[in-house]
Amino acid sequence: MSAIAAGPDEANGRGSNCAHADVRPAWPVRSWQWLVQRLRQRWPVIRKQLPRDLVILLWLAILIQYFGFAWVMTDSVHTSLVLVLKGAPVARGDLVVFGYTGRPIEHYYPEDMAYRLRRSLGWQVSTAGPKVGDGFIKYMVGVEGDRIEVVGDRVFLQTPRGRLDMGRCKTTTRHGVPLVPVKAQTIAPGYVYVWAPHVDALDSRYEVMGLVPAKALLGKAVALW
Fold it and tell me: CA distances (Å), 10 to each of 6, 13, 16, 18, 213, in order?
């Protein structure tokens, strides 16, 4: 029986049907190796700039802790962008930032595209709001000892500076949800009266929001634009 010699390609394993294992490292390993290599290449520059970058990060951390910016989504206080001084003391007449502590109102949020999309996905969604903790920006005009007076559908605030007209209370929202004025009372310690000049503003003239606990105040706002 004659022997059949193997060709050079077959002897070296090329041309055969045998599968060959991929000896390259997995992509996480390759990514880590690339990152280490880049760090080694960049280290002289990083070491030189590190003190400056740490100082910048420290200042940014301080600024974020004490300052911020807020975009006012409505025209209730006739400004769109404010600088927030977190934890700053506030005085009568200041723009203040606070977390909502009142009750929700039906149909407060619009049934927009995002609402319809979430509803189509079967999510539990509601148009009731505002939610407790939602950020608000209003003028703080009433403090402890001031007297709230209600005459018909108008609310007045009796202060050491005189009697201030807080505006007329609407009987319903634009969607027909009933609204009632805040109760006549003397502002108790630990509470403030907030107000906005817009006729449709939600503020302390309505019972649903009422007086705001002083502990809910987050800081002072400075109108920028």
Answer: 6, 5, 6, 11, 86
Q: Which one has a higher pLDDT value, 44 or 210?
A: 210
Q: In the sheet where 217-223 sits, what is the strand order?
A: 67-71, 81-86, 217-223, 95-99, 135-142, 191-195, 212-213
Cα angle vertex 215, ends 222, 203, to 5°? 60
Return the domain boundaries, the chain: 23-64, 72-223
Q: pLDDT tens digit string along 66-97?
A: 999 999 989 999 999 999 999 999 999 999 99
Task: Read off the tokens for 210.
Answer: 């009422």
Give the strand pairing for 135-142 and 95-99: antiparallel
Q: What sign has the CA pseudo-torsion 190, 131, 141, 166?
A: negative
| Overall average pLDDT of the 45-71 stretch | 85
Residue 192, pLDDT above cutoff 90: yes
Beta sheet of 147-151, edge-to-edge order? 162-168, 154-159, 147-151, 185-186
pTM for the complete prediction? Answer: 0.75
